[in-house]
Structure formats: structure tokens, C-alpha cells
Amino acid sequence: MAQVIGVGIIGMGWMGEVHARAYRAVPDRFADGGLQPRLVVCADAVEARARAARERFGYARFTTDWREVMADPEVAVVDVTAPNGMHLELVRAAARAGKHVNCEKPVGRDPAETRAARAAAREAGILTFVGYNYRWAPVVQYARRLVAEGRLGRLTHYHGRFLNGYAGDPNGFLSWRFEREHGLGTLGDLMSHVIDMAHLMAGPIASVTSDQEIFIRRRPIPRPGSGTHYDRGTAEDPAGDVTNEDYVSALVRFEGGAHGLLEACRIVNGAKCDMSFELHGTKGAVKWTMERMNELQLQWRRDDDPAQDGYTTLLSGPAHPYHGHFNPAWGLGLGYDDLKVIEAWEFLRSVAAGKQGEPGFAEADAVARVQQAILRSWESRRWETVERE
Fold first, then answer.
1. Are residues 106 and 219 in the same domain?
2. How far is Cα 142 from Cα 293, in angstroms, rounded to an integer?
3. If residue 15 lies in a helix (H) or strand (E), which one and from where to where?
4. 20 Rama class: left (phi>0) / alpha (psi -120 to 50) / beta
5. Residues 191, 48: one domain?
6. 139-162 per-position pLDDT tens digit
7. 106 occurs within a structural domain
8. 373 in the same domain as 247
């Protein structure tokens, strides 16, 4: 008999919907896993959105007060997809209630809040997980395996980036994502994924020097509870100031000796979702982008035959991690939502086993320590050392 795990989701915007679909798909995609998530309650401050989510996804009930999620005895895990400014408060409440937490990144509005969230979870003894979903692409997991096995040799260079033009329209709404009181801008939203992927693929970052810029300084003010950060107003609408960064770049040195460049921008033209990395070692190299998430570029050094020394394209298939849970064929790709299904499965599996999985709040804290060094570099204009745990 499958183990039933009661789920409560707080925040029913786009990401809350993605998480709800993911939990519903787990018993199908991981049919032999013996887990049955049950959508108990969803919470959103906008009643119409909470009510629609209950009807659409089959929650047992809905609420406009997130505290009811924490108090519900049928809820074993709390899923946080609310705005970043609420994350710490929600994590602390879940910890007090003894609920395990799956929290979207960034866990806190700033590094200090992420560290506080980790401390609250650790003190309460709850299990945690974080939405660094890009790491779950099957070919990314395969590339990680190649690195771990030493098949690329000694790592020398890493280039990670997240170029996404979701905010490139100057008439895009001034949502909470653009206000410093609700958290960091691109450093928290996009660069957190870049840093996590760099840690996954190349190991801990030792030091950084960084720069940042706000390119679009005013935006139309949205109506509360309407639209997403992809929606737009007009030039005639009342406008407000953007108070966090559009662009971040950082030169980095890894503890293992590799050097690299990390970059993220939310207003760039051309790129749509270029969450990507290039990793070079003494024996070979790999590169990957989310825009072609089912392809991995792989190169082996060929001193014996330089004519064949170049990148080869691998297509995701059942020999790569997780792919076979979605289809049995080579070249029939997965999509973004499938990565969230894998994420939900890994979280629930850790809860069922009573064992902390990755990425949890420890990995989020590691990202936050790099972000803190980046923030210091903006002030000092120098290289800054990343604090060790």
C-alpha cells in the first residue's frame, strides 16, 4: 500500500500551480515508488485564486489564511511558493508546527534570512528541500556523474549563466520581484540557480568579485492579486521605482582550483531561458542550456586523432537518470514541469525515508554565502572570500 503524505501549498500563482501538478504526477511517473501525495489544502491571499486552485487541482479545501495550513493535522509537508518576502516567516511557522518544508528559491529575501531559515529548520528537526529544479535534467545529472567519476580530468574553467528576458519589456509590471524590500533582484531570482548549478558541477566557490546594474529603473504599478511577472501595463499607467538589480556578473575561483564566470540578467533580449553552463577539464568538456534541455554537448580530448576533437551532441534517453520515468525512448524530451515532478519525488522520498535529501537548506545556505560575498564585492569593488560554514 502506498504511503500517503499530506501536502499544503502556500501561494497559488504560476509556481504554486506547477508544484500542484508535480505532486499529482508523482504516483504516475514514479509508480513503483510507493508514495501517494495528497493535496490537502491550498492557501492564497486572493480568494478567487485559492478557490480556483482547489477546483482545478483537487485539493480537499482552500483558505486565504496560510496559518490554517500550518495548523492542519492532515498536512505533513508545507510547500512554499509565496512571494520571497514571506519565505522566512512561513518556514519558521512550519518548523514550529513540525511540518517538513519544500521552499522555492531563494529561501530568504537575503542571505541572512536564508541562514535564519536553515537554523529554524535545523532546531526543529524538520526536513527541507529547495526548488533548484534545473539540476534535475537527465543530461545534467549525467554530466554531474562524469565529473564525479573524474572523466573530464582536473577542472580548469566554468562558465555559468542565466539570461532570461522576462523583464525586458519596460512596461512589464512592477511586481514584488523588482522591489528590494521583498528581496534581492536578479542575484536572488536567477543567479541563485547559477550558483547552485556551479556548486553541483564544479564544487564550492572560494572567492568572487562582482558587478551589478539596474537598466530599467521605473515600471507600471500592477493591481494587487492580478497577473504574473510576465504580464505588462502601459506607458500611461502610474509607475514606481525598481529598487533591485537587473544584471549581475561575477568572476569566481573554486576551491578545487578552477576559475570561472557567472552571469545573470532578467532584461536581456534574444535569450529566452538560457540557464546554462560550460565546464572544461583537462580531459574533456561539457556544455548545456535549458533552451535545449534534452541535449548535452560533450567533448573528449583526442590527441590520437585531432580531426575528431570536437563537441558531440547527446540526446536525453533512458540510459540517463530519471528519463525512463517519463518515456522509454531516446530523443523524446522532457520539459520544465517534468523537472518539478522529479523535484517533488525527491522531496517526498526524503520525507518517507526520514532522511535529509539534496538540495535542502544546507545547499541554499551555501548559495547564500556566495551571494553575501557578491554583495560585499559590490561595496568594496574587490575580490571577497566566501565564508565557510
1. no
2. 12
3. helix 14-29
4. alpha
5. no
6. 999 999 999 999 999 999 999 999
7. yes
8. yes
- Burial (Cβ within 10 Å: 0-12, 13-18, ≥19) of residue 357: middle
CB 114 within 8 A of CB 104: no
The CATH number of the domain where 185 resides is what?
Answer: 3.30.360.10
283 part of a folded domain: yes
* Rounded Cα–Cα distance for residues 227 and 175 (Å): 9
Across the beta sheet with 384-385, the strand order is 312-315, 295-300, 284-289, 274-281, 155-163, 259-265, 247-254, 205-213, 384-385
Q: How far, rounded to the nearest angstrom, does the alpha carbon of residue 46 sit from its chain's CA centroid? A: 25
Q: Residue 358 falls within a domain, yes or no?
A: no
Average pLDDT over residues 342-369: 98
Total domains in the chain come to 2
Q: Are residues 282 and 300 in the same domain?
A: yes
Residue range(s) defining the domain that contains residue 302: 136-351+365-380
Q: Which residue, chain included where needed, has cell 518556514?
A: 91
Angle between helices 191-202 and 138-148 (to 10 degrees): 40
C-alpha 68/C-alpha 70 separation (Å) is 5
For residues 11 and 150, what is the distance between their CA atoms, to the nearest angstrom?
42
Q: Indicate if 273 and 148 belong to the same structural domain.
A: yes
Report pLDDT digits (tens) over 244-260. Answer: 999 999 999 999 999 99
CATH of the domain at 83: 3.40.50.720
pLDDT of residue 175: 87
Task: Name the grid cell of 289.
Answer: 542550456
The span from the first CA to the last CA of the chain, in angstroms, equals 41
Nearest to 161 by CA among 133, 130, 186, 131: 186
Backbone angles phi, psi at 244, to 5 degrees: -135, 170
Same domain for 344 and 283, yes or no, is yes
